[in-house]
Hints:
The structure is a single chain. By secondary structure, the protein is α/β, with parallel strands linked by helices. The chain folds into three domains: about 10-275, 2-enoyl-CoA Hydratase, Chain A, domain 1, CATH 3.90.226; about 305-485, NAD(P)-binding Rossmann-like Domain (Rossmann fold); about 490-615 and about 615-675, N-(1-d-carboxylethyl)-l-norvaline Dehydrogenase, domain 2 (Orthogonal Bundle). The chain is built from 28 helices and 20 strands. The chain has an eight-stranded mixed β-sheet. The chain has a six-stranded mixed β-sheet with strand order 1-2-3-5-7-10, sandwiched between helices. It has a four-stranded mixed β-sheet with strand order 4-6-8-9. The longest helix has 20 residues, at about 80-100. It is globular. The relative contact order is 0.06. 1,4-dihydronicotinamide adenine dinucleotide binds near residues 315 and 441.
Amino acid sequence: MAKKKYKNWKIEHDGDGIAWLHLDVPKSSANILNESVINELDDIVKVLLEDTPKGVVILSDKDSGFIAGADINEFTTFESEEAALVNIQRAHLIFNNIENLTCPTVTLIHGFCLGGGMELALACKYRIAEEDSSRLGLPEVKLGIHPGFGGTVRSIERMGSFAALDLMLTGRVLKARQAKKTGLINYAVPKRHLIKAARETILKSPKIRKLPWWESIVNHSLIRPFIARMMVKKVSARASQAHYPAPYAVIDLWLKHLNNRTTMLQEEAKSIAHLLVGKTAQNLIRIFKLTDQLKGLAKDKSIVINHIHVIGGGVMGGDIAIWCALQGYDVTLQDQRHETLAAVKKRAVKLYKRRLRQTRLVNSALDRLTLDINGNGLVKADVVIEAIFEDAEVKCNLYKEIEPKLKRTAIIATNTSSIPLEKLTDSLKKPDRLVGLHFFNPVAQMPLVEIVVGEKTSKKAQQVAATLTKKIKKLPLPVTSTPGFLVNRILMPYLTEAVTLFEEGVPITVIDKIALGFGMPMGPIELADTVGLDICLHVAENLAESMPITVSEHLRDLVNKKILGKKTGKGFYTFKKGKKVKPKTKANYIAASDIEDRLILRMLNETMACLREHVADSKDLIDAGIIFGTGFAPFHGGPLQYVKDRGQDKVLQALENLEKTHGPRFKPDEGWKTIMIE
Ligand code: NAI
């Protein structure tokens, strides 16, 4: 084979006649299948078809892994479905050529092998993965698409229908052992054996495990429709077809075309081209990129955080401490009550057992979490997270007491959900060390942390807070220290409007169903019950001073009666064993047509106000914050993207109509006329 130089690939021929194709995309921490990689691969494979070696091994020279997927930046550049199809068909041809090589082909996998990377691996005859680091999967549904380089067909051939469909429909990522069990790979081996395993596999060309006998029954054209119906039912419980068409398209491909491989490959290409240019995929891809943008906000690599001291072991402080220790930090947790600390330890054991499974790992996480009633950990802390009662005076007294004991460089991060930092800084000798680190409840599940930047907060304190957030696998969003910051400020009008609707007599199930229909992950009434009605009331009362929200008397009444939502078994809903009991709605109830707009437009109006006031730095960051902080229907791409898609004029018009019918709380923010959302 002629020695040609490639930008991304290096080809070596060894003494056994095996061609080793090393991928190392320049100036990128991970390998991705971009146009240039695919073009070169096309060229390489054509040569291999003409001058076929004894075997081909495809491997990565990157530490980060094999291939993290296709280049999603290119997904957003197709001008039409036809243009996308041409591109996809070309990749199909290359992958088919790899499959058609007459010699044994092996992919050697370590680290990430996802999406297009996994599809490339599936086009080879054998897949060998390093047993510890490998993470394999076809997570395309998370971006609103499905495998598109022949992966739907080949994964089913290698794994069987159930296992492959499960992988594609859930987007799950597997470790090497699970991948071996399911048939996604052939061998899982220790790192030191990888090269030897590849060479031996080529030289011996071992038999490939056959699928079990019952596979032909599952795949029978008379049985498939039943199974497909079952799968559609399961998928629809998680995501509606109108909002998330990709998983339904996978089931459809399997149902209609499994009997004809060539047709299924062709239809896969058409289907993904169609999905790629659709709104859902474009918005989900945008969100994926926004995640990177948020992570990129923690850019100061010089920051070192060794020890975290958390003060306040209640709902939030306890869970923050548990989470930080889970992510590898040494944490001391201080509270004034022994019982509170003991309860935190119990919660930690429960979470660690669930997440870490192995006793050895659970024990070392527990070792990292020290209960510290006397606050001995303060002196060595790089970050002090304060999560005591929401009372400015109490917090100030605490700061005065602890500041003299702190390291010169230590920052204080308050988890306050409503107190502007300016009300707290005067208590400090070094006010620039105070920053907000606003976690959401429940800490383990909510991906966003608002980094609240006060007038005096130093750049360093900001960066330390952002770095810590990223290190504990959360997304940092810098926001100004204005009432409600970003997320609560936008969520509250939506929740209070839902309560107003309830007070007007709209059944709670109807209110929640309408919000779910818009694509929210949970209805506002259930959300209020889940967050806790006392917390909602507290935030609403705080924000009512600066925003047009009315605090519901009914809500106040419930809280006075200690009816606080899920945690007390009753709120707007009744909860049995933590599960919501759905009250019956009158069968002939007809909901007013403006309910969806009343809920959503209150959020959009507040979003516009936040944009105008620069609560977060850009439109993108505001959208990201609201999606990750409130769960705002991801397929809409965020509230501002939704405004853009629906039309800014139309949203403004709708707000003006609502103001006429329902009053001044719908008065459009002045930003609607001065800011263009592009
Ligand atoms: P909590 O009442 O459950 O816990 C507060 C804890 O602080 C108690 O265990 C108390 O014993 C302890 N404490 C009070 N003063 C202390 C002191 N001087 N020294 C040591 N320990 C002290 O409160 P929660 O809900 O955890 O809230 C804490 C902070 O987090 C508040 O600022 C709140 O606004 C904020 N927050 C709360 C959220 C929620 O959903 N609960 C969400 C986001 C922020």
